[in-house]
Amino acid sequence: MANHWPRFTYRSSAMYVVALTGGIGSGKSEASRHFSSLGIPVVDTDVIAHELTAIGSPLLKEIQRIFGAHFFNADGTLNRAKLRQHILSDADEKAKLEQLLHPAIYQQAWKTLQNNEQNLHPNYQLLVVPLLFENKRYQSIANTTLVIDCDESLQIQRAMSRSQLTADEVKKLMLAQTSRENRRNLADAIIDNSSTVQELTEKINEFHKKLIKTCIVSK
């Protein structure tokens, strides 16, 4: 499958943001690790979500107040798997959690991007958002959207191997995300990740070189 390279867009701001997304098991984490190895600042909303829901955080206390202590482990940590199963079966409960988490995660992501721009002066930054096309607030700060893509059967296989989930559990998570077809239609750039890690890194290297050469305005 051929890669589809960006329709580059420009903003008046000096900050240039590549928003990376992909379905569960597509290889977002592996891709973001390689971008980081290239010296690109990576802002990952999943990492931010975990940090904001650490023990003692105000957000964690609010989750406990709204959803109850039975979604917590004995040590006070959030039982993420149990809460995930709960919200996947109840759209109203899912909306409650999203209304609580998404604004806080967005604010922290935006703050981190700004801090990186001021202190690191990167050519561009990578913003990793699993639900990029479902959560439109992030698209307003993205110059280019990049999708890491693979066949759905491979997504299921990888997610089962990585997270010890059942096939049915992975399929439920996939249904909670936008479709693969929609991600591909909305993406500015697509990198196929159906093969090896080495091939993925080579494709990212190519994307990186093209972005640096043809898109980023010298500062």
Question: Notable features of this structure?
Answer:
219 residues; alpha/beta; five-stranded parallel sheet; 9 helices; disordered N terminus
Fold and architecture overview:
This protein is of the alpha/beta class. It has helices at 28-37, 45-52, 58-67, 80-88, 91-119, 152-163, 167-175, 180-186, 197-214; strands at residues 17-21, 42-44, 125-128, 144-149, 189-192. It has a 5-stranded parallel beta sheet with strand order 2-3-1-4-5, with helices on both faces. Helix 1 crosses helix 9 (197-214) and helix 2 crosses helix 5 (91-119). The longest helix is centred in the middle third of the chain and has 29 residues, at 91-119. Mean pLDDT is 90; it is low at 1-12.
How would you sum up the major sheet? 5 strands, parallel
Q: In order across it, which strands form the biggest sheet? A: 2-3-1-4-5
Number of helices: 9
- Principal-axis shape: globular
Low-confidence stretches: 1-12
What gap, in angstroms, lies between the N and C termini? 35 Å
Average pLDDT: 90
Instruction: Give the amount of beta strand, in percent.
Output: 5-15%
Rg, Å, rounded: 18 Å
Order of helices and strands: EHEHHHHEEHHHEH
Number of strands: 5
Main structural class: alpha/beta
Range of helix content: 40-55%
